[in-house]
Amino acid sequence: MIGEILPSWVASAERFGDAPEETLFPEERPFIARAVDRRRREFVTGRHCARLALARIGVTPGPIPRGERGAPVWPAGTVGSITHCAGYRAAAVASTGVARAVGIDAEPRAPLPAEVLPTIASPGEIEALRALDDADGEICWDRILFSAKESVYKVWFPITGRWLDFSEAVVDIDASGSFSARLLVGDPAMGTRALSGRWVVSDGHIATSIALPRP
Ligand SMILES: CC(C)(COP(=O)(O)OP(=O)(O)OC[C@H]1O[C@@H](n2cnc3c(N)ncnc32)[C@H](O)[C@@H]1OP(=O)(O)O)[C@@H](O)C(=O)NCCC(=O)NCCS
Known about the structure:
- By secondary structure, the chain is of the alpha+beta class.
- The chain folds into two domains: 2-105, CATH 3.90.470.20; 109-201, no CATH class.
- It is built from four helices and eight strands, in the order E-H-E-E-E-H-H-H-E-E-E-E.
- It has helices at residues 37-56, 117-120, 123-135, 141-160; strands at 11-15, 78-85, 88-95, 99-108, 169-174, 178-183, 194-201, 205-213.
- The strands form two sheets. The protein has a five-stranded antiparallel β-sheet. Strands 1-3-2 form a three-stranded antiparallel β-sheet, covered by helices on one side.
- The protein is globular and about 50 Å long.
- Coenzyme A is lined by residues 42-43, 46, 66, 69-72, 82-84, 105, 149-150, 152-154, 157-158, 164, 166, 169.
């Protein structure tokens, strides 16, 4: 699923089941030492997908520590992103020679809880969701909006090292499979306030991606 919405210069891997815990590197074990079973499995398989994707761009398997605010610490010369949700795990990576950042996010294909939407979307974004729903009520557009903002954050944070609130990006979803995001705050490291991404749905999941090329 994730490969369908990534450019050819981004490598990816995905799993619908879990990898054995032995696939973790010893350096990664402390990060889940006190974690519950669900968290252990998603962490292990996310790392497994990351190493599979890295192998596709010629990177020898090694540990991927958890860095500042939970962001993965990618091997030198690479950038990437990990996502997991019930029944799905994926990673996407690229060489820093071609990419500045990659952000991916997967979610169950189900409407957001009603009380969540106003906390992640502006009145204008909610209005736009209504129009999309009128055209196709099966997609779960609110979940795509949420996921797109998670992908924005996963591109924003590794570049800026800063928090970004849901109210600080405006996402405009195109029904044909893409979206654009306008950042309402600037950061010198970002160098742009405009991002573009893609979305895809399967029976049970939705996913979004943003791949920021190196100019
Ligand atoms: C960090 C966050 C984006 C993760 O998204 P999620 O939908 O909850 O969970 P996912 O499974 O898709 O992603 C989790 C993975 O994201 C990665 N991640 C965590 N923090 C990250 C960060 N600061 N930067 C980049 N990637 C990060 C990790 O790889 C993590 O998996 P791991 O802990 O097993 O390594 C989310 O929890 C969060 O904090 N969001 C608030 C900020 C935000 O989204 N703002 C919107 C701006 S428009």
